[in-house]
Specification:
about 130 residues; mainly alpha
Length: about 130
């Protein structure tokens, strides 16, 4: 792996955003880095690991900002820190949704009839196969 790719991975692991890294002189665009993940399986694995490390670093920052919010002296400071906390939480949910995203549970209520294909008549099967309604 070339030095730029290694540097991107290192900086992401330290919590820096890809956008910030790509703004640095001599670095490719964000879209170019994403394209590398499609073309280079090893880089894709390292990039995925770096995204998780980046999220963990962001989570640590979130805890620090939340602690500072408790020490805020004015309503403006409280509001500003709340906005930062909410933004960090949103970013975390996008970076590693399985780890930091909202848990979603789906429940079904009501009745449901399950029919086997062997229970259907020939005209019903034909309607399904052609996508037409009976």
């Amino acid at each position: 792996m070339d030095a730029r790719r290694e540097e991107i991975i290192r900086r992401m692991c330290e919590g820096e955003s890809l956008r910030s890294i790509c703004r640095s002189e001599g670095f490719p665009t964000c879209s170019a880095v994403i394209q590398w993940t499609y073309k280079d399986e090893e880089f894709a694995k390292q990039y995925a690991h770096a995204r998780e490390a980046q999220a963990d670093a962001l989570f640590e920052d979130l805890a620090e900002v939340a602690e500072k919010a408790l020490q805020a002296e004015t309503q403006v400071e409280v509001a500003a820190r709340k906005l930062i906390v909410d933004t960090h939480k949103w970013r975390l949910s996008k970076i590693v949704p399985k780890k930091y995203g909202d848990k979603i549970q789906t429940e079904h209520s009501g009745e449901m009839t399950v029919r086997s294909a062997t229970d259907l008549k020939d005209d019903e099967l034909a309607a399904i196969a052609t996508g037409s309604s009976r």
